[in-house]
Amino acid sequence: ALPGHLLRGLLPLLTIFRLERAEDAARRAGLSTQPIWRKLWNDVMKTRPPNSENITCWRKKFLETFFSNVLHGVLDVSSDWRLNDRHFSPLLHSSPHVSQLTLCNMLQGAVELTAQHNHKVLENLAGSLRILKFQHLLSSDQSVRHSLVLLLHRLIHHGSVSQVSMYSWPVPDTVLLVLILSMSAGFWRSGNALMYHGSPCGLCREEDKTQSQEQAERGCYTKREESDCENQKEEADACLNSVLSSPKCPLLQNQACEETSDQGPCDHTSIQGGSSPRCGSGQLSCHPKTRRWLKPVVGRKRRCLRRSRGPCADPEDLYDFVFTVAREDNSGLLGKTSTTEGENAENWTSSSPGSLCTGHTGCKKRGGPAGIFSLKTARRFRSVSTLELFSIPLTGETCRTLSNLLSSWVSLENLVLSYNGLDANISCILSGLRALSRHPDCRLRVLRVSEVFSHKPCLELVHCILSTVPQLHTLSVSFDLKNQLEGNRPEGNPICSEADIPESCLEQLEIRFPREPLQTTFLLPVLKASKSLQQLSLDSATLPCSQELGLLLKALKECTPNLKKLSFHDVNLAEHQKEVLLLLQDPVLQEITFSFCRLFESSTAEFLSEIINTVKRNSSLKSLKLPGNRLGNQRLVALADIFSEDSSSSLCQLDVSSNCIKPDGLLEFTKKLEGHIQQRGGQIPFTHLRLFQNWLDQDAETAQEALRRLRAVCSVVNDSWDSSQAFADYISVM
Questions:
Q1: Distance, CA of 628 to CA of 637 (rounded, Å)
Q2: Could you give the 3-state DSSP secondary structure of residue 481?
Q3: Are 504 and 529 in contact (CB under 8 A)?
Q4: Where are the beta strands (DSSP E) in 540-630?
Q5: Contact, 362 vs 424, CB < 8 A?
Q6: Whole-prediction pTM value?
Q7: Which domains are delineated in the chain?
Q8: Are 517 and 457 in contact (CB under 8 A)?
Q9: What is the pLDDT of residues 390-439, one digit of tens each?
Q10: d(Cα 534, Cα 566) in Å, to the nearest integer?
Q11: Whole-number Å distance between alpha carbons of 40 and 732
């Protein structure tokens, strides 16, 4: 109720607890608290956040980072009076603003968040958290894994997390990695056996209650059958709890629930070796003759739970309980060699979400729970839509596990596999994706694969991926180096057949060649199948002959009528001036990038003049990016003529980063640009200029004047770059 002028003076004097409570009042008074939160960031965090120019809400940015720092013990709330309020609970009051969270090292954060005193904090995160990241993880003990299970169950299965990312795990703990992957995919075997501080998960119980009511309405189960299955459910719950909390794991005896007859009963061997009640096969499904294709439904608990065939090999190994090897009545088991691909597809749709990995080279099948497992008995929960794995070595066993999960991960929309040492195991991943693509509810639209060494030529892999998952909208394939043993191709089945690529939905294609020749004849089938392609990026390719770039431009014109963005990075275009000018004339392209393409290495002033005149006549081009082409001062000043009075250009973005530009050259460019603006009555389309990594530190005063005048014309993005150190680094590696 305070007047606006009093509230304006009061806001900077409030603790963050009081400032939060005053947000609505400030908004009603037309006051912004953003400058106060920005000052709080500067005073408390004492760092410049990455991409600070893109931060739209400093309140959210501060509270989200504050939450993470307090959780990991790197921020003392008593260090600043604005943080120290007796009414303020740091984790509780900041948690509603947390949309992404990183857990690292020994997962201390997971243990803290699942502690009983932080129950409300976890509930808040279940509604606000969208991105969960794991970084620099280490092996963990049984109690920590238990906390992680509870956290993932609440935040993914019953929460709002849609993205799981894992970074920098040089020697991953297989148990922990598979646990995170499987729960991200929505699988958990035990159902509501998850115990939160002595009580089963209430949300699971609610789902079970709803499901059982629906089952009862359909008359699928008798009271006797429900009672029998409930007893067996409690036994399974007890087993999981003992795995999680007991130093010794009870043996899980051989599964005796064989569905050998539609009429015959099944015997379950109890955990302690005795017999449990017998139940008819009707308990497995409402329709015995068709139960083979009935999959577990979220919340269904009136099923006879199968028992594992083997004992827990290690009392510390939760993985052995989560994914035990179960005997199958068909070929749905991962990697069954005698099954054809067509039969595999049938089994996938009619039986279980098992992997379709058929044993390509690098995907050898081994026994044991780490290599082969069944998901038939797993309960399915909500799953994430984005999975990212960065710098995490994936063994053959882990790849088969991931392939198995991918085969039925219908909610997955984005998959990023970066520097995982896949090599030949990429065939196993593609096998799972092939199964997923055949699912009518498949949502996978983005796939990014990056590796150091290329196991296959880039274009061959692109061909295979598009043949496997034609639904993709974005595909990125990146390799740093050629495989030194390329002549020794591994034996076995190829990654994919030589069949033509089906018509795809591809809109964006990015290829980073490991210094491979760009062969348009191999790229042509990809372009022909991608009529909807709008963005194409070619990186680090070599041009085998002078005609190759011309052939590419012809293919693009014929096959991709909707192409809007074209990018070349680290491709030597010094001897292809004619093709460069043809691209700049294209009436459809809206963004062109020539990044580190040595455009002006052997060019004349006439070539630069032709570029300027071509751009001046092109009214469709909106963005021109020329980083790393040795423009220098003189060529930069000349580029200002693109906006002269006689220009019909619609260019609004110009990137001249890493071009040896000095302060005096930038100031001269600014003055010339101001002159053109004056001649055109103050109206030009130019709105954004990027100046990263130029030599502006050589004369700070002149640079500041140039930037000040430029910012009156357009948005300028630059950095404080030490050119002398960069030059020293360059000399040191010559």
A1: 16
A2: strand
A3: yes
A4: 565-569, 591-595, 623-625
A5: yes
A6: 0.77
A7: 564-733 (3.80.10.10)
A8: no
A9: 999 999 999 999 999 999 999 999 999 999 999 899 999 999 999 999 99
A10: 8
A11: 41
